Automatic annotation (TrEMBL):
Every GFO/IDH/MocA-like oxidoreductase domain range: 139-258
InterPro entries xrefs: Gfo/Idh/MocA-like_OxRdtase_N (IPR000683), Gfo/Idh/MocA_Oxidoreductase (IPR052515), GFO_IDH_MocA-like_dom (IPR055170), NAD(P)-bd_dom_sf (IPR036291)
The species this protein was found in: Phytohabitans kaempferiae
Name recorded for this polypeptide: Gfo/Idh/MocA family protein
Boundaries of every Gfo/Idh/MocA-like oxidoreductase N-terminal domain copy: 5-115
SUPFAM superfamilies, A to Z: Glyceraldehyde-3-phosphate dehydrogenase-like, C-terminal domain, NAD(P)-binding Rossmann-fold domains
Pfam families the UniProt entry points to: GFO_IDH_MocA (PF01408), GFO_IDH_MocA_C3 (PF22725)
Length: 372
């Protein structure tokens, strides 16, 4: 077996403790990775994570860690406003990167990172879109690709969560320049990424957004209508006003409906496939057989990244594949601010929404965000 991949973790907060470190620990037990360093500007947080996870070296300076530890892979779990600097720094040091969502606050930032990637064989920067990697999503994507359940016609994508004032007391949240947006960017991007993973490229979006309750500079709710390249249409809701929290995707096809209802992660049991009345039961039963249960989590995506690293190939959720969902977020904001439909590929250098998700608009009051 090849040697373990020398890995460093950047950011010693909640996402590192709850998601990154458990996935890394499992792959370390399997001999795939070795966590050699942790980095955070808070020395006490670094010390706590090192003690908890048995990490040998700690740093408060990313550049120094890159020079001293020479990691093969850097896992980044810091606020999105610093992702561009940290990801490009790691790439320039020759390390692959796995970066938490939201990827970066703008398409310009994303493309700047892409320009820093190596030639064929890496290093590459991938982004955390873990809902693609559960067995349920793989099964439904296969059903759609094989065509037995018919063409997808109508879809619904919902991220209806609840966030209070304490959530937004974190200084970088709710600000365009540091988070890149509100729930559309920071929360709903996961479900929207899964929707695109299932249905393929989107073609057109029309949207509204508003700030209805919270004292933030971004939106706290958005609603969008999507048309996909394959002809399907969809509604997308992203909200932080829902005490009855849910994450949901529903795809109505010609011969069946595939539906997922969960909150922050799913198992096979959270999916249903409902056949049309005329479908033979034996065929419908095969659609409902999801096979072995692989829950959506950071672990299966990290496995895929490690496999890509060892093969020297571009990992999933990187490059153009990682950009689609961020482009959709930018298009939702542009449509909400301008009141006009936005086409895929429209937001390019020279467009104000290419460099900032709010298009460089002035600070907004508590009225609806849309000016259309």
């Amino acid at each position: 077996m090849s040697r373990p991949i020398r890995t460093a973790i950047v950011g010693a907060g909640k996402v590192a403790r709850d998601s990154h470190l458990p996935a890394l620990a499992q792959l370390a037990r399997e001999g795939e990775v070795e966590v050699v360093a942790a980095v955070d500007v808070d020395a006490a947080a670094v010390a706590a994570v090192r003690a908890e996870a048995g990490i040998p070296h700690g740093y408060t300076d990313l550049e120094r860690m890159l020079a001293d530890a020479c990691p093969d892979l850097v896992v980044i779990g810091t606020p999105p406003g610093v992702h561009r600097e940290q990801v490009t720094g790691a790439l320039r040091a020759g390390a692959w990167v796995w970066c938490e969502k939201p990827p970066v606050p703008s398409l310009a930032d994303y493309d700047a990172i892409l320009a820093e990637e190596g030639p064929e064989g890496g290093p590459y920067a991938a982004y955390v879109f873990q809902h693609r990697f559960g067995s349920g999503a793989a099964h439904v994507r296969r059903l759609l690709a094989e065509g037995g359940i018919g063409r997808p016609l109508v879809a619904q994508c919902e991220t209806s969560w609840y966030r209070d004032a304490a959530y937004y007391s974190v200084p970088w949240r709710g600000r365009w320049e540091t988070e890149g947006g509100g729930p559309t960017m920071g929360l709903g991007i996961h479900q929207m990424d899964l929707l695109l993973h299932l249905l393929g490229p989107w073609r057109e979006v029309r949207a509204i957004a508003a700030r209805l309750r919270h004292d933030v500079r971004t939106e706290d709710v958005s609603v969008a209508l999507l048309r996909f390249a394959g002809g399907a249409v969809a509604t997308v809701v992203n909200s932080v006003h829902s005490p009855a929290q849910t994450s949901r995707i529903r795809v109505d096809c010609e011969r069946a409906t595939a539906e997922l209802t969960h909150l922050y992660g799913y198992r096979n049991a959270d999916w249903t496939v409902t056949a049309a009345p005329e479908v033979p039961e034996a065929e419908a039963a095969a659609w409902r057989d999801f096979g072995a249960d692989v829950p959506s989590s950071h672990l299966p995506q990290l496995r895929a990244l490690v496999a890509s690293f060892r093969a020297g190939r571009r990992p999933p959720a990187s490059g153009a594949d990682g950009r689609h969902s961020l482009e959709l977020v930018a298009a939702i904001y542009k449509s909400a601010f301008t009141g006009a439909p936005v086409l895929a590929g429209e937001i390019a250098p020279g467009d104000p929404f290419y460099t900032a998700m709010d298009g460089g608009a002035p600070v907004l009051d508590a009225a609806p965000v849309s000016r259309g």
